[in-house]
Amino acid sequence: MSKILVVDEDSKAVGSLINLLKSEDDFQVSAVLSRDQALNRLADEFFHVVITDDNSNVDFGKSIIEQVVEQYAQTQCIIYASQGSITGAVQAMKKGACDYLNHPSDPSIILSTVKAAVAKASLDTPKRRRTDSAPGVRFGELVGESPKILKVFNAIDKVAKTDSTVLITGESGTGKELIARAIHYNSARCNKPMVVINCGAIPGELLESELFGHEKGAFTGAHRTRVGRFEMADTGTIFLDEIGDMSPDLQVKLLRVLQEQSFERVGSTKTIRVNIRVLAATNKDLISSINDGTFREDLYYRLNVIPVTVPPLRERKSDIPLLVNFFLKRLGGRRRQDRRRMKTLSEDAVKMLMEYDWPGNIRELENMIERLSVLVEESVIQADDLPERIRGRTTKMRPTALESLEDGIDFNGAVEHYQKSLILEALNQTDWVKAKAADLLKMNRTTLVEKIKKMNLEAVRVSNKQDSL
Ligand SMILES: Nc1ncnc2c1ncn2[C@@H]1O[C@H](COP(=O)(O)OP(=O)(O)OP(=O)(O)O)[C@@H](O)[C@H]1O
Ligand SMILES: [Mg+2]
Fold first, then answer.
1. Whole-prediction pTM value?
2. What is the whole-number distance in angstroms between the Cα of residue 64 and the centre of ligand 2?
3. Which of 47, 137, 375, 453 could serve as 5's disulfide partner, Cβ 3.0–4.6 Å?
4. Which amino acid residue places its CA nearest to atom 9 of ligand 1?
C-alpha cells in the first residue's frame, strides 16, 4: 500500500482529487484539513507522498513543504497549485517539492505524477538533502554521526537492498526497532506492509495464533477464523521483536516458515504460502541462550544471516549532543511560537551527560530530556537540574569500597545500600517497567519484584514523584 496524505487547507478542488486517488487500489489516502494536522499525522506514521496546496510563507514562517523536507526526507511532496500559478509551482520546487500539479489536470497525469512520487519515496535511499539540512539525521528518525553508528547506517543501506533475513541485536533502548523500520522503508518492499510483533509481550499459546492465525473452532474461544501476522505481512516485511523470548515449541514452527515460506493456520491443514522478508531483534545474548538450551541453534543460524549489532550509547557518546538537540527540537513542537519556548542545555550539563554511562541507552536519554523539559522552568537546563544518578553517580550512588573502608564499614549495610541504589537506578531508567529493569540487571523478573517488596522501594517511588511535582 502506498500512503498518501492530502492536506486540504481550504480548497474545493481537492475533493475530486481525493476521489480520484481513492479509486486506485494501491493507494491508501488520508486527508487532513490543516498543516498542523498534517504534521501531527506525519509524526505518527510514514507517508510516501504529501499533496498540498499550501505553499504560503504566512503565519508560521515555513510552508509545509519545507517542514516535510526537513523532518521527513523520505516523504515526497507534490504541490497542488489550484490557481494554476507557475511562479507558485517554481517556488515549491525550489523548497524541495518533487513535482507539481495544476488544477484542473487530466486524471491520468495526476495518477502518473503521484505514482512517480511514490516510487521515488520507495526506492530513494536516504536523501543527502536531509543530511545536508540536519547534520547527523538519517533514515527518518535515526540520529547519529559517531563512527560506530555510521557503521550501522552503512549496514542498513546495504541490507535494505536485499531480501535477506536480518538479526538486530543490542541492549535495550539502543534503537533496534527504529533500525528495523529503516531497513523496511528503504527496501523495495517499502510500499508493502511492515508487520511488527513483540514475541516477548504475548503469552506462548496466544502467540501461535497471533503469528499463524486460526480457524473457527480451533480451540475454546476461537469463535471465528482469524488471519495471522504472517499472512498480513505477505509481500512485505515481518519484524519479530524480542525473538529471544519465543518458546521452544514456536521456535520449531518459525524455523519451518523461514525454511519453506509456508505454514498452516492453527486448526487447519491447508498450507498457506507467503513471500515475506523477516527481520528479528533481541536484547538477549542468543549464544548463551543456545548454551542454556532455551534457543534453538538451527533457528539462530537461519535468523542470523545478516547480523546488525547496535552499539550501546556509552560506546558512542559523541552522539549525545546531537541526540539531545534532536529530542529538544522535537519536544519544542513545530510551530514557531512553540519553538521559541524550545529549551537548551548548558555546556556543563551536556558534559555531564557525556560522562554518564546510560545503561538504558537512548530510551533513557530521551525520557530524561522529556522529563527535564517539562520540569525545568528556565529556558536553559543546567547541570544542577540533572537527576542525582547523573550528577552524583560516583560519590552518591556507588561509594568505592576504599573510600568507605577508611573508617571501617558495615559490610551488610553497604551491600544492601548498593543493591538498593542499583535497583532504583534500573527502575528509574526504565520508567518502572519491571521486566525491562530486570533485563538491565540481568535478573529474573520475579526476583526483582521480591526485592522491590522487601526493600519497600514503591514507597521511594511515591516520594520521588511528590518531590518532582
Ligand atoms: N539513533 C537514534 N536517533 C534518535 N532516536 C533514537 C535512536 N535510537 C533510538 N532512538 C529512540 O530511542 C527509543 C528506543 O528505541 P527502540 O525502541 O528502537 O529501542 P530497542 O532497541 O528496540 O529497545 P528494546 O530492546 O527495549 O525494545 C525510541 O523512542 C527511539 O525513537
Ligand atoms: Mg524494541
1. 0.62
2. 31
3. 47
4. 175
